[in-house]
């Protein structure tokens, strides 16, 4: 475990609200700094899976999440340090925020907010402002965002959607009055030319060529409009990280035996939602982790003893998933432990919108117009390959589908007095997305279940 202080330059990219351009600026910064020859570590506040995919493409290393709700605030700095250390030490870390700067988990003030994470990692903030129909008020907004929590240091702003040179001059003069540096200015036309409007809509793996073009355009946008040297100077003002790096081996207590059972993780375009720490924890617990693409691979990798199927958008690939009948049949009969979250739950059912799936679970699923979204505090209802009955866990839901029945006779979780998910034999499946860094015993338990 690395424990000596590390002067890691770092910044948090935040905004007063969603839609101001955080992802545009953060992704562009990652790509532009990498084009300068720097090793850049990408991070995202919150449970989101899509933005980290673009971050990974821009930085050339895994995008990682920093979510105090899912993993506990005590692990945030340690996870930042871990992510910035592997596979090689980074020259700078760029952390994209979530929602508005001070928006936290519902009913918990600013807990799990961008401001909360910025405090935990002692990082200065770059505030992205949508300046549409704003003049001097942009300075008042910035001043209010800074004064609301003096422990969060706003080191500068990037003006977004600037209308004209005169508009930019007015904004710069106003921000100079309140002593906040302007680090960049992006015009409305320039932002539209870089197709930022697509970001966050489709996972990067689902359209790799277009994603590469988007990231290249964002790099060029930031290079042309943002003072990268000023951003680097701001990042270098962060104090040394003194928290030891998170270590997956320590987290799981070492290997769960002398053999290395093979665990297959679902991947490919249909199953893009997975935290990097999942594979690291399984490996640390003694597993040989391999990837299987249910769209293309006709069978599980030879010797597979357990399967983990995470989230994604299987409804967009239902016909293609159905077409891979040999893998569906193998999963229907697979006798090892299977853990499935959200998209994985749908894939294991009998049908999705009438299209045949694996049939491992006796349920049907269909798309609806209603979005189910939010953090959950759950308790395991049934012993399973990842939890013992009564164990608490924190997770996150994000889906527009429903299942019939809504849960199994043996449920996976309970929250708010209601049962959720399915435990059937050695299968554990539910809509709940969990981050195993927050409960690493799940990885060890799964490896032990391979026996």
TrEMBL record:
<dbReference type="Pfam" id="PF01656">
    <property type="entry name" value="CbiA"/>
</dbReference>
<dbReference type="InterPro" id="IPR011698">
    <property type="entry name" value="GATase_3"/>
</dbReference>
<comment type="function">
    <text>Catalyzes the ATP-dependent amidation of the two carboxylate groups at positions a and c of hydrogenobyrinate, using either L-glutamine or ammonia as the nitrogen source.</text>
</comment>
<keyword id="KW-0547">Nucleotide-binding</keyword>
<dbReference type="InterPro" id="IPR002586">
    <property type="entry name" value="CobQ/CobB/MinD/ParA_Nub-bd_dom"/>
</dbReference>
<dbReference type="GO" id="GO:0009236">
    <property type="term" value="P:cobalamin biosynthetic process"/>
</dbReference>
<keyword id="KW-0067">ATP-binding</keyword>
<dbReference type="GO" id="GO:0043802">
    <property type="term" value="F:hydrogenobyrinic acid a,c-diamide synthase (glutamine-hydrolysing) activity"/>
</dbReference>
<keyword id="KW-0315">Glutamine amidotransferase</keyword>
<dbReference type="InterPro" id="IPR004484">
    <property type="entry name" value="CbiA/CobB_synth"/>
</dbReference>
<feature type="domain" description="CobB/CobQ-like glutamine amidotransferase">
    <location>
        <begin position="263"/>
        <end position="439"/>
    </location>
</feature>
<keyword id="KW-0169">Cobalamin biosynthesis</keyword>
<dbReference type="Pfam" id="PF07685">
    <property type="entry name" value="GATase_3"/>
</dbReference>
<keyword id="KW-0460">Magnesium</keyword>
<comment type="pathway">
    <text>Cofactor biosynthesis; adenosylcobalamin biosynthesis; cob(II)yrinate a,c-diamide from precorrin-2 (aerobic route): step 9/10.</text>
</comment>
<dbReference type="GO" id="GO:0005524">
    <property type="term" value="F:ATP binding"/>
</dbReference>
<comment type="similarity">
    <text>Belongs to the CobB/CbiA family.</text>
</comment>
<dbReference type="InterPro" id="IPR027417">
    <property type="entry name" value="P-loop_NTPase"/>
</dbReference>
<dbReference type="InterPro" id="IPR029062">
    <property type="entry name" value="Class_I_gatase-like"/>
</dbReference>
<feature type="active site" description="Nucleophile">
    <location>
        <position position="342"/>
    </location>
</feature>
<keyword id="KW-0436">Ligase</keyword>
<feature type="site" description="Increases nucleophilicity of active site Cys">
    <location>
        <position position="433"/>
    </location>
</feature>
<dbReference type="GO" id="GO:0042242">
    <property type="term" value="F:cobyrinic acid a,c-diamide synthase activity"/>
</dbReference>
<protein>
    <recommendedName>
        <fullName>Hydrogenobyrinate a,c-diamide synthase</fullName>
        <ecNumber>6.3.5.9</ecNumber>
    </recommendedName>
</protein>
<feature type="domain" description="CobQ/CobB/MinD/ParA nucleotide binding">
    <location>
        <begin position="11"/>
        <end position="199"/>
    </location>
</feature>
